[in-house]
Write a structure and sequence with these properties.
Elements: H1 29-41, H2 45-48, H3 59-70
């Protein structure tokens, strides 16, 4: 059986290199959260690769998430 070989090609100097830490793709939260929930529930390894990444959210969503995180479940 043949093994796959990884070939690495350098970036040409004349092409701009994308900054992967800059948000550049808009996505609706309603499209994203079911996928993230499934990945979290099924313990997909790739999700852990992004654990330390930061995301930008709207101010109102931030306030709702912050208030929700401070709520304590009733006994």
């Amino acid at each position: 059986m043949a093994t796959a070989r990884l070939r690495v090609f350098p970036h040409p100097d004349d092409e701009p290199v994308e900054d992967f830490h800059t948000p550049s793709v808009p996505i609706r939260l309603s499209d994203l959260y079911p996928l993230l929930a499934q990945a979290f529930r099924d313990n997909y390894v790739w999700l852990r690769d992004f654990e330390n990444d930061e995301i930008l959210v709207s101010g109102d969503l931030y306030e709702v998430v912050r208030a929700f995180s401070n709520m304590r479940p009733s006994a």
